[in-house]
Design a protein that fits this description.
Length: about 200
């Protein structure tokens, strides 16, 4: 289920670091917009003709048909993507000029610049992760030690959420036992839970 209609784009890799950069495009028009600036090589397939979870080689060109860069296009069709929407990832060379030119072309063709954390927000809104996992993404990115990395990774994988769900289940069970005891405790012939079970749940 797509919550937001606007198609967004942003550089997903650290600026000026490494020889390769990734620009992510997410939203209902991600494929159509990316196709406007992409010219496939070898396969001859447009992005719209690609299968999900596949990669192909091609060129990014401007409206004058000038080559901006040779790139790898990765396609993730909804709902099987990080955000739960159609996602195109453009793997280009790490030049800041190239990255900015590709972003400019995407925006000219209908994209909006993503706000900080907006890809993760969409993943949360589209049910790809819960709030605890969404918060863990930022913790993982900012992890400065092995311990912080491990904690954030486990939380992002849902370990913390699973523990919370188990606690919630136990609390609901405990409350139901208490309600039964309060409602029917004066009936000697009815027994819903003995005191031992209540003490065990409470512990």
């Amino acid at each position: 289920m797509q919550i937001l209609d606007e198609t967004i784009c942003a550089i997903s890799t650290a600026a000026g670091v490494g020889g390769i950069a990734v620009i992510r495009v997410s939203g209902s028009h991600a494929i159509a917009i990316s196709d406007k600036i992409f010219k496939p090589l070898k396969s001859g397939k447009s992005i719209a003709e690609m299968d999900g979870n596949t990669i192909q080689f091609g060129r990014i060109v401007n409206n004058k048909n000038e080559i901006i860069d040779e790139v790898l296009i990765s396609l993730f069709r909804n709902p099987h993507s990080f955000t739960g929407e159609d996602v195109v990832e453009i793997g280009c060379h790490g030049s800041l000029f190239i990255q900015q030119e590709i972003l400019k072309l995407l925006i000219e063709n209908g994209c909006s610049m993503a706000k900080a954390g907006e890809f993760t927000q969409r993943a949360f809104l589209n049910g790809k992760m819960d709030l605890s996992q969404a918060e863990a993404v930022a913790d993982l990115i900012n992890a400065q030690s092995a311990a912080a990395h491990t904690i954030a990774l486990n939380q992002m994988r849902g370990n913390f959420s699973s523990k919370l769900e188990e606690l919630r289940r136990q609390l609901l069970h405990f409350v139901s036992l208490l309600e039964l005891e309060l409602d029917f405790g004066d009936h000697d012939d009815l027994e819903f839970a003995d005191r031992t079970e209540l003490n065990t749940v409470a512990e």
